[in-house]
Amino acid sequence: MGSNFRKVMDAGRAYMIGLRHNLRNQPHLSTLPSSPRIDDTFLVEFPKSGITWLTFLIASVNLQKSGLERQPTFFAINDLVPDIHVSRHLPPPLPFPDMRFIKSHAGYNPLYSKVIYLVRDPRDVMVSYYAFARKLGWYNGSLHDMIKDPQFGIKAWVAHANSWLDETKPSVSFNVIRYEDLRADAGGVLKRIYSLLGYSIEDEIIGRAVDLASFSAMKENEAFCSENNPTLPADFKFVREGGSSYKTKISKEDVDFIEKVAGETMSTFGYI
After folding, report:
1. pLDDT tens-digit profile of 210-236?
2. Across the chain, which distance is largest between two alpha carbons, in Å?
3. Is the four-CA dihedral 18, 89, 87, 45 of positive or negative sign?
4. Staple partner for 59: which of 80, 102, 112, 197, CB 3.0–4.6 Å?
5. pTM, whole model, 2 decimals?
6. What average pLDDT is seen over the chain?
7. Which residues, at least 6 apart from 11, have a Cβ–Cβ distance to it below 8 Å?
8. Of 154, 46, 177, whose CA–CA distance to 105 is shortest?
9. How many Å apart are CA 107 and CA 85, to the nearest integer?
10. In whole angstroms, how far apart are CA 195 and each of 206, 217, 243, 253?
11. Window from 51-55, 90-94, 235-239 with minimum mean pLDDT
């Protein structure tokens, strides 16, 4: 009995060591669901490009179409549009559309077969990411320093965007959504996303989703869910200004540096 038990335990340990080794040598698995589905659709962005807003819009449409009397909240958004960086073990999809939208910040992953890539003007990304990273204590330098930081700055943005632009195969269902277009016409962009998947969503459902995810509604939602949460830094906000602020936040020297480093990629997305 003791010998057999030890054999089972040794086999279990060997399996876990092999699994960890496999994940280290195949990093793409770390941003793939533990039980992937062929219809998984990944919402991919470089951080602070607007994906939280997009997940709320999509969650609201899916809840309405599923006939559920529920609204997305910051407390429970991962139940509805799960974040692959929080857990690889994902909840089942809602009745509509009976497939998973999955949030990801991953660079190019050859195991993603359906990708909606959300992009934002990197000059504004730098401003928003800096405020976010500073508040969480991830970065303690100046905005000028962060823009030039290889991990957080403009070179990281270029590497992320170019990984998807350069390496994505024609067989992958890949579509780019610009944050600025989402701000200008959230309803139109939302309808387009569902059209890509073969669905035509009623205007009243789109309109309600846009209303529930308005800037004021999102701020109120965040404040409610942050109340009585002492783990968050004081005055921490996911929802900030939402618009373009780089012209008043970034020096001309740093704007010139961003455009020099990222100009070609920015041009691909129509930013310069």
Report:
1. 999 988 888 788 777 777 778 766 665
2. 74
3. positive
4. 80
5. 0.86
6. 90
7. none
8. 46
9. 12
10. 13, 26, 26, 42
11. 235-239
